[in-house]
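Hey team,

Filing this mostly as a record. A colleague (T.K.) asked me to run one chain through the structure pipeline before their review meeting, and I want the input and output archived in the tracker in case anyone asks later how it was produced. No errors, nothing strange. Just documentation.

Input sequence:
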Amino acid sequence: MQTFGFITHALDMNDVVRYEPRSAGKRIELVSKILEWMPAYKQSHITGIRSKTGEEIDGYFCACPFLPHQFTELPREQVYKKIIDAGKLAESLGAKIVGLGGFTSVVGDAGETISENLNIAVTSGNSYTIATALEGALEAAKTMDIHPEESSATVVGATGSIGRVCAQILSQKVDSLTITARSLSRLKNVAEMIYQFSGKRPNVTTDLHASLQGADIVITASSAGRGIIQPHFLKSGCVVCDVALPHDCSREIAEIRRDVLVIEGGLVEVPGKVDFRTNFGYPPGISLACMAETMILTLEKRFEHFSLGRRIEPEKVIEIQFLAQKHGFKLAGFRSFNTQITKEDIYKIKENVRALKKKQKISIGL
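Output structure:
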């Protein structure tokens, strides 16, 4: 049986408490310091993954005990060392490939240095994350009666490895596209890549609020590490696919904006009777797409650096989506702020949109 590894880390204090209840109520500064001292460790042994082809594999979650802010604030060498240690642990457990989860795939050169210090293949999982984000966003748009080919779309974090390819592929499927991020010069470079790919020139802006005002479809994949998208930023009736971890969408959106559909990107059903033997906040059998990419490559015995660095190519996205379908991986429905979205929920959102439009017409005397 082939074996994979996947490097995890806590996304917030809720994750820390889930793994270690005694940390509840402790100051984040104290918890951060303890995590800084902790070595990488085996979090769980994953079993029960069975492809439609009949192939079975197992794997291990190997924890890199940092919170998101530590990946960006601590010295680069210190962060690299702990990620590499987690990768070496996976290697010692028999893994032939290791996936990078969360900020472990963002820090520095997006996995290239990590791969140079391990004897096994490394993948960020970004190709399948992109594939599922696009599939989820377009499927959700249809449920909201949005026709993609007639719509306006925005990609937030478009200069990142996920956002760039999402923007390239999405540009072929929508009427107009806006890309936004913090660096104008990098956005202009991405805009040229999009033009070379699809023949369309996107709108470019560093103003996040302005970029979202007219967007029917939003894919957000920044590395901000916090809720940068506020409730009043969004157009009524829009769909937002939030791929970022931690999420880019403020939790206030769920409470205030009952007229928009926000979905979590990159969630898939794993074939077989998978047992992760750990609770990372999703229902049984549900995996993040970055995790699933590592599983798919293991089922294919493709022990190679599949998604690595900041130049993921659209062809990789298409290939991994085909392989996912081959083995029985599929979108896990829609979830929003850790809650399953039902058909009834979507119906209520659409009713709220209609009611708001009616109210606006009355207010202007139509």
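Quick notes for T.K.: The chain has two domains: 2-127+267-331, 132-266+334-363. The CA atoms of residues 73 and 340 lie 34 Å apart.
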